[in-house]
Design brief:
FAD/NAD(P)-binding domain
């Protein structure tokens, strides 16, 4: 099987790119995606916060697949860029002229011993797995006292603000129901601070103070004992490293994440990264070794946050540059690292953090100060962004 363009991944990035290519007149596109269901993952935070339902986050994959794109409902298992071939789990091979790699990432549970076993107990959960986000809300509703631990790795993960959002929405519920006075909320992260952009970090620090959250930075989760309900952290300070155990009664985690195995084991992977991200030019999103390969979304090593907002800006760059190569021209479109993180700090409040590679604010909404908590931004998160996603972005119009 040969196609002019092969896309690996039918998530936000793959569907957006495929739709844009079809709108540009490309008619020989194959998209490899094994799943029947397409999720709008940013709403999982609100599912875990009791504001939305899981049904509102999913649709059948076939309903979002652009017309004219050949959907290969199988899993990619090997990429051979020298031969320009992709092998799928059935054993078949697809050859290509151009390849777009955007399969998303995988939860690396094995990197923290005991972590997956912990979320299978009645005391822990995560909003990073669709089926477990409703469990988060059930645990939050029932929790009336003790230590509520929220943990986040300092390594790259999709939507790195999501673990904070889980803590804020939970604390907001406990505050509204009068339980917060009996709960010690601990937010432990491997990152060195609450956020990398000072203007937004100042607002988030105020949110943490308002809820009385015990924020612990440079705390990397290294092991969990589900039976004893303890989480072991490695703490990095200027004096060196040490370890500390925290006993929890409620535990929400963001597991470490990495590129899928077939990416990590391929020549496309960045050899300097333990997570196997695809190596790309940070501006053109073209592979650093194989010019006919592009990558975007969570799996590429562009030094920006792994968010849907980043994908919205990356997709047109990839498509423009791929079309340029098809026309025998050089890729000239450039991605500036734009990303956005909508921080839901309470029910009815949201801070929209927009920034680029320079880690300076990059606001895109005119006449509105999005650098503070706002009710209209909450409405954007709850209703506006999902509507935009399903009706515009996935149709190559965003």
């Amino acid at each position: 099987m040969h196609h002019r363009i092969v896309i690996i991944g039918g998530g936000s990035a793959g569907i957006d790119v495929a739709a844009r290519l079809r709108r540009a007149g490309q008619d020989d596109i194959a998209l490899i995606e094994p799943s029947d269901i397409h999720y709008y993952q940013p709403l999982w935070t609100l599912v875990g916060g009791g504001v939305s339902s899981l049904d509102h986050t999913r649709r059948f994959e076939g309903s979002v697949m652009p017309r004219g794109v050949r959907w290969i409902q199988d899993k990619a298992v090997e990429i051979e860029p020298e031969q320009r071939e992709v092998t799928i789990s059935s054993g078949s091979k697809l050859s290509y002229d151009f390849l777009v790699v955007c399969p998303g990432l995988e939860m690396a549970w094995d990197m923290v011993p005991g972590l997956q076993d912990a979320v299978n107990t009645p005391f822990a959960s995560t909003n990073y797995v669709a089926e477990l986000a409703p469990k988060t809300w059930e645990l939050v509703k029932k929790f009336r006292g003790g230590t509520a631990l929220f943990a986040s790795p300092g390594t790259p993960i999709k939507c790195p603000g999501a673990p904070q959002k889980a803590a804020y929405l939970s604390a907001d519920h406990w505050q509204r129901t009068g339980a917060l006075a009996n709960i010690d909320v601990v937010f432990a992260t491997g990152a060195g601070g609450i956020f990398g952009v000072p203007e937004f970090a100042k607002v988030l620090s105020s949110v943490i103070e308002g809820y009385g959250i015990d924020a612990r930075f440079s705390h990397e989760l290294v092991e969990v004992d589900p039976g004893k309900r303890t989480a072991l952290f490695e703490i990095t300070t200027p004096e060196g490293k040490s370890r500390q155990s925290i006993t929890y009664n409620f535990f929400h985690t963001a597991p470490p994440q990495r590129a899928p195995g077939f990416i990590r084991e391929s020549p496309l992977a960045d050899p300097t990264s333990q997570f196997g991200w695809v190596s790309v030019d940070r501006n053109t999103l073209q592979h650093t070794v194989y010019p006919e390969v592009f990558s975007l979304g969570d799996v590429c090593n562009a030094p920006t946050s792994k968010t849907g907002a980043a994908i919205r800006k990356e997709a047109p760059v990839v498509v423009t540059n791929l079309l340029a190569l098809l026309a025998g021209k050089d890729p000239v479109a450039r991605y500036d690292g734009y990303a956005a993180c909508p921080f839901t700090t309470a029910r009815g409040k949201m801070l929209l953090a927009e920034f680029d590679y320079s880690l300076t604010p990059h606001p895109t909404i005119p006449l509105i100060n999005t650098k503070k908590e706002r009710y209209d931004m909450w409405l954007l998160k709850r209703f506006g962004l999902p509507f935009f996603y399903w009706n515009f972005m996935l149709k190559g119009l965003g």
